[in-house]
Amino acid sequence: MGAQRKEGASPAMIRIEIVEGPGRGEVRDFRQDIVNLGRAASNHLVFEDPYISSEHGQIYLSGERVFYCDLNSTNGSAIRRQGEDRFFRDAREELKPGDHLVLGGKEKPLVIRFLGADAGDGDESERTIVASRSVAQARELGERLGGDSKALAALYRLARDLATAKVRSEMIETLAEALLTAYERAFLVAVYELKSGRFSVLTHRSVGERSGPPGDIPPAARERLSTEQEAMLLEVTGGKSAPGTGTALFAPLLSQGKLSGALRVEVRSGAAVFGSRDLDLLTVFAAHASKSLENLELLEAVRARAQRLSTENEYLREKSQAASDMVGESPAMKHLRSQIQKVCPTDTTVLILGETGTGKELVARAVHEGGPRREHLFVAVNCGAFPENLLESELFGHMKGSFTGATDTKRGIFDVADGGTVFLDEVGELPLAMQVKLLRVLQEGEITPVGSSKPKRVDVRILSATNRDLEKEVKTGRFREDLFYRLNVFPLKVPPLRERREDVATLAVFFLKKIAPRLGRSSLEIEPAALTALSNYHWPGNVRELENEIERAALTADADEPVDASHLSERVLSAAQAVSGGASGQPLGALHARLEEKEKEIIRETLTQTGGNRTRAAEVLGISRQAFMKKISRYGIK
Predict the structure, then answer these.
(1) How far is CA 416 from CA 288, 378, 380, 407, 458, in A?
(2) DSSP state of 461
(3) Cα gap 333→350, rounded to integer Å
(4) Confidence band, pLDDT 50/70/90 cuts, at residue 238
(5) Which of 200, 215, 443, 570 makes an SS bond possible with 241, Cβ 3.0 to 4.6 Å?
(6) Do the Cβ atoms of 138 and 159 come closer than 8 Å?
(7) What would the pLDDT profile of 485-507 be if each residue is shown by its tens digit?
(8) Which secondary-structure segment (H or E) carries 415?
(9) What is the pLDDT of residue 482?
(10) What is the maximum alpha-carbon separation in the chain?
(11) Are strands 421-425 and 230-236 parallel, antiparallel or unpaired?
(12) Residue 629 CA to chain centroid, in angstroms?
């Protein structure tokens, strides 16, 4: 640890003998550059002596020399040499083989004899660790700094400024300024960020002749920051970017217990070197900064999540509103809307009946959005999409370990939607066993998760839908009669598209408006002949089939042309021909010509109605003036 070593080099070794105290007579070899002594369990040499401080001192290797540094211990340290003891605190002394370290109380001191050291085969060319501190000791170090009013003032200002910082970049700059103020002798302060295993400079401050950003963190410091997460005092013996000698302080920045960056403070020749008190101060700085940075990062994450949830919520509301905006002015649709308006304000259970593709879920959303639960969740589940065992877990949840694969407890849909609405699509597909459980929800308002014996009360409105004839299912025994009556309190019948053909053209234009942005077009238009063909088709797949047909036709049409009859599928054109008389022997190829004749007739009639005003005629037909002029030119209409 210390200076960077060549690959394959032998490690350094420090040898000591315990002369007096626990372990007397033991000889200990430490194959490392630094040995910590003290009462705390994190030290390399631990002595349970009340007169020895938690972090009392350090023996460290610097090149071929060995030093002992007292870490501002309470009772100080002494070096016994030639029978004389010399006491000191917060200072360092070079050790010679045979020197004794005397630590602790006067009556039963701990005495350690330094036997010698081997620097190994490393290359001692740049920096050596002199002392280190654990950020976890910040409270104790802060108390140690209690007599230093200047240090306390700097820490107070830092805490105040960090508390008012709104964004991370502002906090980093505040931290750098505080370091430069606290360390008047420093010629460089820097704040680093650790990403993907590399330290990069976030900001720095320099004084004097130095210019430009600082270099990389020395290897010895990088290693100790990463492995020990300790603050350290390094002896600087030179470097290309900053020649001269001096000392450097490094301290880790932690986030949720993991290394996220580092602080750096350096002095050079001409200024007093840093000592233990300076290291204590930077350790406390790092502890404050780490907590503030961590809190701000968490706050920014919460803000980002809140913004994302707000955006998603807005999107879902828009999607829900668009879905519930049922298109059509036919008598059947007007009657359906009237029924929805009657049941919306209540909590009545609704059964929505209709063929596949008629838009039963849109009706369910309209009921939910128009009711008192609109501010709560609307959760839809297709009862036919799950096997029976998985459907029970999906609806009611399960307890951890209740079955193979249940590695965690899971909330069911009824629990998640508590206070809102649950829409059971294809409710006729429910197995009989699940019908019993659903009946209990309707009768008692209770669910029991799989693997649990305790029922849980829920408050949900249940909307259901089916394309089956449930009355026939009841007679055959495939659906419970009591459940049918519970679900069928207020039935809503969604008409098939063939029973409201007058809505086909309106729906086609509506779908084109939805599709245009996805195709990168500001608008999409459709020819009257195409609308006529669409209106003559019987639509067995109902509204869903119409939407798919419109999307396919829009993709077929070129970017600068409207959708016309030629872009429609063969099945639609065939049905349109049959309805318009083409089935009486006329070939399918004649259909397009017949549709064009009908379109010309419509254009002429519209021009007559508008007194020849082509702009007004285009508005009446619902197409752009440019498209209308193209048709006049193509058909030769005067």
Answers:
(1) 40, 10, 12, 19, 9
(2) E
(3) 17
(4) low
(5) 215
(6) no
(7) 999 999 999 999 999 999 999 99
(8) helix 413-416
(9) 94
(10) 129
(11) unpaired
(12) 53
